[in-house]
Design brief:
Elements lengths: L10 H4 L25 H12 L3 H19 L11 H99 L1
């Protein structure tokens, strides 16, 4: 599915020079890969890093910690007695993986933001150029319209003068014919 609009107002369908898509500006950047790759690993790692900040993750982790502490503190099981060294180890492992994954997600997002900013700048330049071309065309059309109106005014004045001259000649001929007819 292609978005054939420019700035969302449907102009592209009416203008062949903009018949491409808004995304035509990002095509030159398509070959650029993220430092962490744009493949399966990069996408999954980024998705996992984004999951760390969700309410679902925070709620599940909080529930697990409460359950862990309750089970060990209340004495139901004693696999990790106070000061909960295994729980600290689990958090350390999680932090060791979470930090690089979060940095990965931020780096990938920064790359996308940079390319999007460049695309937006090129799109704004193209819109500005199109706007300038339209203004020049409108000015040219206005000048042509003024010239045509001046020509129309001149032709109307000439037509009026000729009509007056024809009327005067008609009156003269009529008077001349009446004099000839009355004198004969």
């Amino acid at each position: 599915m292609k978005d054939t609009t420019v700035a969302g107002n449907g102009e592209a369908a009416a203008r062949p020079e903009c018949a491409g898509t808004y995304h035509k500006f990002s095509l030159p950047h398509a070959h650029l890969a993220s430092a962490f790759g744009s493949g399966w690993f990069g996408e999954k790692a980024e998705a996992f890093a984004r999951f760390f900040g969700t309410p679902l993750f925070l709620g599940a982790q909080t529930s697990l910690v409460i359950f862990w502490i309750a089970m060990n503190f209340l004495g139901f099981v004693r696999f990790d007695p106070y000061p909960f060294i295994l729980l600290n180890l689990a958090f350390s492992v999680q932090a060791a993986y979470a930090a690089p994954l979060i940095l990965l997600a931020q780096t990938r997002q920064a790359d996308r933001d940079k390319v999007q900013a460049e695309v937006d700048a090129q799109h704004r330049e193209a819109l500005a150029q199109t706007s300038i071309e339209r203004l020049n065309l409108a000015q040219h059309n206005a000048e042509q319209m003024i010239a045509l109106l001046e020509q129309n005014t001149q032709l109307t004045t000439l037509t009026k003068q000729l009509s007056e001259r024809i009327e005067k000649l008609t009156v003269e001929m009529h008077n001349h014919l009446l004099e000839k007819h009355d004198g004969a």
